[in-house]
UniProtKB/TrEMBL annotation:
Database matches in InterPro entries: GH, Trehalose_synth
Organism lineage string: Bacteria, Bacillati, Actinomycetota, Actinomycetes, Micrococcales
Cited NCBIfam families: TreS_stutzeri
Organism: Nostocoides veronense
The name this protein goes by in its record: Maltose alpha-D-glucosyltransferase
Gene that this polypeptide is encoded by: treS
């Protein structure tokens, strides 16, 4: 028997050895010698760390009170305290942790709602976390079939300037603290949300960012050269004798981006590794390289220091160094993870920007090695193993090659975001041709990526990424067959990008917008509208909205009716349209057009008259309405989604095995064949706007098998001696078919 918690003991005094064993899983029955997986719970509530109050005096390194205040605010200092609470505890040895286990993760949570804190409208007196822990909301989620909520970034972000904090520069993905941002709620509200989720059979997924922080206390202490803090970051001190190599920092700024010429000079002098493989968020005159120089900063040693630091993303997001001798960056991240799982009660973590954790100088004089580096894999293995050790699981967002997703998943995160097939299914809808989607899915199968290890998602907070890194980089010189002709991978990526841009932006979709070189800022509904030839969102008719809803459900079927996690957003649930550019002019002025698709939404009519969220994000137009309205209507998007997910859950499709992606008789069709525990399953989808008919043929299908529609449970035919089945699909229709092998059907 496993350990059980005494219900008479208050949660506030539980120690790290307290544990709640989960029900015995299928894996546990087969391998009963393996310890049961333990559900994370709030185990550190007796931990009260002291924050030093702000003191009068100069905000500089020669003021000990200021330095001590920064240290009390730093994530590294908190990490030391959190880690000590777990050291030497028997609970750290009760879970297997070496290998990723996607099926175990999916058994805990197979359908995710991905929230975006600053876009969610709440009741006037409620916080984001309070709203997300609302009983009515979780009842609606349970009714639809949603079993997990990914909160998105809710902890303090941005920076510190002097004694004051500065705003986030990237939607709260520039973390500076383990404390919650008061704008989103409190730790108690987070814990209460976890308890409500558990009561409804769900879990909460939190975030850690192993790639960078904001310019908070940790970075300010690093600039002052205090203790281990410089070891957190990829930063190099430039001696005063070489300050002439550095650009001047304009008044009012604390750093300035290096231009390519300065980057090369510092590289030639041996200070930095120089140019990287690509410059994310490249903007002429704003961000031309991944390196910036700080202004002179006075340290407690009485000396002024200047640094050059790396930032893959924005200037306010200094990159973490995973191979500094102090291992300070690693300690910061691991402590943050333990806090979320052990103290707050979350059950899983998203690893953001975790593909850029290794940087190495090129031996050939070319760009430095900064993507797909073995150090990234090693660091991810450390993080993911630690999370599994305490009973949780992780998922990663890696927009890299399929090969890198495979290698990083062998010992790293349990699940990986599916960035490869998402632009492919958008391309299928936009063109009415699923050939490229079949190509990407088959490529993943051939390389060895199991679809059960992927998070198949509709919209999230980022743009619809179409970089197609797999084809544009590692496989640029490989030959693929597309539209009956051979084509190089690099040319294929260029072609698909051009077609997506033409079909979904410009005159065809003026409400969508390109986002730098990465993709298209859009909602799922606006991708569909452009695909359907609806270029004026203000003129949508009820018939147009029904057509959008039908195609939206088709995309949900694609993502849900295959093994793996299915994820969707609040924008999907309400059918949000993009904001007009003038509504977010201040936010997109630096080129970050993603703000047009991050409009505010109200899931439960928390504040029907609200025109914006509490974070001042304008409310987006909703095509489907709130969940309250939708769940009272069996024809609504949410109700139809419930039916799709019910069929999925009834037969365990989420943890099945994909065994075939057969050829089709019509270019708009996609057929997927899956092996379930006691049957086979076929997903048949029509991405075209015309009725299609033809045979579904796969050698994986057994002749004589009875075929049943999983949605209606009505018989639809039998697999013939050619291992095939005849189907007819209406425009943008999808069907999930259960295939009962002869012995089972008899």
């Amino acid at each position: 028997m496993g350990t059980v918690t005494d219900p008479t003991v208050p949660d506030e005094i539980l120690d790290p050895s307290d544990a709640v064993p989960e029900e015995v899983s299928f894996e546990g029955q087969l391998y009963d010698a393996r310890p049961a997986r333990l559900r994370p719970r709030a185990r550190l509530r007796d931990l009260l760390w002291q924050r030093k109050p702000k003191q009068p005096g100069s905000a500089s390194g020669d003021n000990p009170e200021y330095v001590q205040w920064l240290e009390s605010e730093s994530m590294l200092a908190d990490a030391r305290t959190f880690a000590r609470k777990f050291a030497g505890e028997g609970s750290m040895w009760q879970n297997p942790y070496a290998a990723p286990d996607p099926r175990a993760a999916i058994e805990k949570a197979a359908v995710w709602f991905t929230a975006y804190p600053i876009s969610m409208i709440t009741a006037p007196d409620a916080t984001f976390l309070g709203a997300l822990g609302n009983e009515r909301l979780w009842s609606a989620f349970e009714q639809i079939g949603i079993t997990a909520v990914h909160t998105g970034p809710v902890k303090r972000a941005g920076g510190i300037s002097g004694w004051e904090t500065t705003p986030s520069v990237d939607g709260h993905f520039d973390r500076i603290s383990t404390q919650f941002d008061e704008m989103f709620g409190t730790e108690d509200e987070f814990r209460a949300m976890c308890e409500v989720a558990t009561a409804h059979g769900g879990i909460v997924i939190d975030d850690i960012v192993p790639g960078h922080t904001g310019k908070g206390a940790d970075f300010r202490l690093a600039e002052m050269k205090v203790g281990d803090y410089p070891g957190i970051y990829h930063m190099v001190e430039i001696p005063q004798k070489d300050w002439a190599l550095l650009p001047k920092v304009p008044k009012g700024q604390d750093s300035v981006n290096l231009d390519p010429a300065t980057e090369k000079k510092l590289t030639d002098e041996g200070y930095i590794v120089g140019e990287l493989q690509r410059v994310i968020f490249f903007e002429p005159g704003v961000k031309e390289t991944n390196w910036s120089a700080t202004a002179p900063v006075l340290g407690p040693d009485g000396e002024e220091h200047r640094w050059v630091y790396l930032h893959y993303f924005k200037e306010g997001q200094p990159s973490l160094n995973w191979l500094d001798p102090t291992f300070a960056g690693m300690r910061l991240v691991i402590g943050d993870a333990l806090h979320s799982l052990g103290d707050l009660g979350s059950g899983a973590l998203r690893l953001d920007a975790n593909g850029f954790l290794g940087v190495e100088k090129s031996a050939s004089g070319g760009p430095a090695w900064s993507e797909g580096h073995p150090l990234s894999e090693a660091a991810n293995q450390l993080i993911a193993s630690m999370v599994r050790k305490v009973g949780g699981f992780t998922f990663q967002e890696l927009n890299l090659t399929i090969d890198d997703i495979l290698s990083s998943g062998e010992r790293g995160a349990d699940l990986s975001y599916d960035f490869v097939n998402r632009p492919a299914y958008h391309h299928a809808l936009a063109t009415g041709d699923a050939e490229f989607l079949r190509l990407t899915m088959r490529a993943a199968r051939e390389i060895g990526v199991d679809t059960v290890s992927l998070v198949h998602a509709l919209q999230n907070h980022d743009e619809m990424t179409y970089e197609l890194v797999h084809f544009a980089t590692l496989h640029a010189g490989d030959t693929f067959s597309f539209r009956r002709k051979p084509i190089l991978g690099g040319d294929l990526a260029t072609l698909i990008r051009a077609e997506l841009t033409e079909k979904l932006t410009g005159d065809n979709g003026p409400y969508n917008s390109t986002f730098t070189t990465n993709g298209i800022a859009s909602t799922t509904a606006s991708i569909i509208a452009a695909s359907l030839g609806l270029n004026d969102l203000s003129a949508l008719t009820s018939e147009n909205i029904e057509a959008i809803k039908k195609a939206h459900l088709l995309l949900a079927m694609y993502n849900a009716w295959q093994p793996g996690v299915f994820a969707l957003s609040g924008w999907d649930l309400v059918g949000a349209l993009p904001l007009e550019r003038k509504q977010v002019a201040a936010l997109i002025k630096d080129g970050d057009t993603r703000w047009i698709h991050r409009g505010a939404y109200d899931l439960l009519d928390f504040a029907p008259e609200a025109t914006e969220s509490t974070s001042r994000i304008p409310k987006a137009r909703s095509l489907y309405g709130s969940l309250t309205t939708q769940l009272a209507d069996d024809t609504s998007f949410a109700s139809k989604l419930r039916d799709i997910l019910t069929a999925r859950a009834r037969h365990g499709l989420a943890t099945g095995e994909q065994v075939d992606i057969p050829a089709t008789s019509h270019k708009g069709m996609l057929v997927l064949v899956h092996r379930l525990a006691d049957a086979d399953q076929i997903t048949v989808l029509n991405f075209s706007s015309e009725t299609v008919s033809g045979s579904v043929r796969s050698l994986e299908l057994t002749p004589g098998s009875k075929v049943v529609d999983m949605m209606t449970e009505a018989p639809v035919g039998e697999v013939d001696d050619l291992h095939s089945l005849y189907v007819v699909l209406q425009p943008h229709e999808g069907r999930s078919l259960l295939v009962l092998r002869p012995s089972e059907s008899d």
